[in-house]
Protein: Biotin--[acetyl-CoA-carboxylase] ligase
Amino acid sequence: MKIIKLSATDSTNSFLKDLSQNSPLENFTTVVAINQTNGRGQQQSKWVSEPYKNLTFSTFISFKDLKVFQKKYLNFAISLAIYDVLLTKNLAKIAIKWPNDILSATHKICGILIENTFSGDKIKNSFIGIGLNVNQEIFPEHLTNATSLKLETGLEYNLDRLLNTILVAFQKNIKLLERQEFDFLEERYLNVLYKKNTPTMFKNSKGEIFMGIIFGISYHGKLQIQLEDDRILEFGIKEVSFL
Ligand code: BTN
Structure:
């Protein structure tokens, strides 16, 4: 596994994408930065991380035969890899909040940004961006929901070692994906999904608040919510939020 360490870059996802355009990359080539000056999150948000304290990295994976409609399984494989590594750290209840925030109890400890290139109906290259809060103890005021491994356990972690452990977990789960163990990945993902089987308040994109229970993930990766009248509605990432 090739690991490129940078002291600073705008975004490791952007850096890795540029790199892949200039030279062919081995699978699991990883770019890790001490400082990201323009870290990107989902839905055009920013990812802010204190230099030296956390892991901000991106990993390249190219696929031969992963169909665009199977994209959700890639998300399951990556989220579960992070989940499994965190599980070994004795945190408060770890869960995956759909689609791929990793929570310790109710607080976000890791964000994932997967960006893909496509060729016809297949996913060609994936740039897996991970922001894992490790040793940061103080977060900016607006990030009220953020936590870190250190805040949760009181321990300080070695970033290089943690990165290696995560990359090994990625390799293991990507193997499952390549072997098309889709049902296994989906079942595991659903089992550890935040608020699964719990009546929960959601807000749709019109601002309407409603109560429902997470039912599952649709064929196309949308969140299925069962309403009180038993109807099941499907939501894309921008179409619903948890309250
Ligand atoms: C999110 O929860 O919104 C996703 C955050 C992803 C952040 C990581 S940090 C490393 C990689 N480079 C980026 O610019 N973003 C991802």
About this structure: Residues 3-191 form a domain with the BirA Bifunctional Protein; domain 2 fold (CATH 3.30.930.10).
